[in-house]
Every structure is written in structure tokens, then in C-alpha cells.
Amino acid sequence: METNGKTAEAARRLGALLADHKGADVMVLDVRGRNSWADFFVLATVSSPTHSRGLQRHVHEALKELELEVRPTRRKAPDGDDWTLIDLGDVVVHLMTPAARAFYDLEKLWYGAADLMKA
Question: Is pLDDT of 63 > 50?
Fold first, then answer.
């Protein structure tokens, strides 16, 4: 998918999808020009591992319609329940527990990035 309004719209729609399924504090950060590997971060807080798995399922079900696909990632350690990352190329989805969200504070790390959920 080319990085233009189409990618931004896909990221917004993923943010709305997560919010519709009770993802908390959903943000879609526009990080274009701030790094070389992604253009948008979609952040949501989850209430439990079960909630995270449900949101992951909803994201995966929406991919074809949004013309996105999962990019396989290699991990040295097994996935934990605190933070799940779904790499979709130009869009990266972060599903985090409240503790992980507070600890990693991605909003502060990417300070100044526009939140497309508020646009």
C-alpha cells in the first residue's frame, strides 16, 4: 500500500475498530518522517489477555478490506500478555495493558506526532 491518504485512512479505520471493540485510550499517531520503518502507530489499551486476543482477531479480519497484510516478525523471547505488536508495514498496531502503556509511554516517545483520532 502506498503511503498517502489511503494508508492514513486505513490507520484511522483500525483505530475506530479498536475503539468500537472497547480498546481504551485509542490513538493513531502519524509518525511519518520520524522513523524509517512505519508511518502510523495505532495504540490501544486492553483490559486482559482475552480482550487483547479478541482485538487481534478483529484487526486480522479487517486486513483484506483495508488492503494491509501482516509482516512476520521474529522474536527472541515468547510473546507476553502485556504488549502485542502487529506489524502491517506502514501501520503498526500496539495493544498494551495499562501497566505496559504507562511504562513504555509511546505517546511521550513520539511527542509531537499528530493523533489522527482527534483530527
Answer: yes
